[in-house]
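Hi R.,

As promised on Friday, here is the backbone we talked about, encoded as structure tokens. Could you run it through your design pipeline when you get a chance and send me back a sequence?
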């Protein structure tokens, strides 16, 4: 045992998945996710961002924004950055930002590929409408 590391020997095999992923995603996808994060926060400054769903295949987890329920989940994919809205099918999308998961009865998502931009005002409107939907479902009913 190694006394310097608290009794554990450091792993000398391949790089840790977290370090490997951080290095592999420090490109356009992370920049895109950062811009989307800014748009979400501008749309709802009260939104809470947490990291959820860590697992061996995704040790860094996924950013999740919520306000009286989940607003959306961010994922860095191989060829895109995805914002998934669990209640997206209930949200008006006049600018047609939702471009994937369109066959789902509940979920809608926005995939952003390298070089693409997102209509920030339209995304802000989707986030605000999602907040409105979440808040309306959490208010106690009056009798």
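Update: got your reply. Pasting your designed sequence below so it's all in one thread:
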């Amino acid at each position: 045992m190694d006394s310097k590391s608290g009794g554990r020997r450091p792993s000398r095999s391949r790089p840790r998945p977290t370090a490997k992923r951080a290095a592999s995603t420090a490109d356009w996808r992370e920049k895109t996710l950062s811009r989307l994060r800014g748009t979400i926060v501008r749309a709802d400054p009260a939104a809470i961002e947490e990291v959820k769903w860590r697992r061996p295949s995704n040790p860094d987890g996924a950013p999740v924004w919520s306000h009286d329920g989940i607003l959306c989940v961010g994922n860095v994919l191989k060829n895109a950055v995805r914002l998934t809205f669990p209640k997206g099918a209930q949200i008006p999308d006049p600018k047609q930002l939702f471009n994937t998961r369109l066959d789902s009865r509940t979920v809608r998502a926005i995939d952003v590929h390298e070089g693409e931009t997102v209509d920030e005002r339209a995304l802000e409107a989707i986030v605000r409408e999602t907040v409105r939907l979440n808040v309306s479902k959490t208010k106690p009913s009056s009798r």
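One thing I noticed while checking it: The chain has three helices and five strands.

Thanks again,
M.
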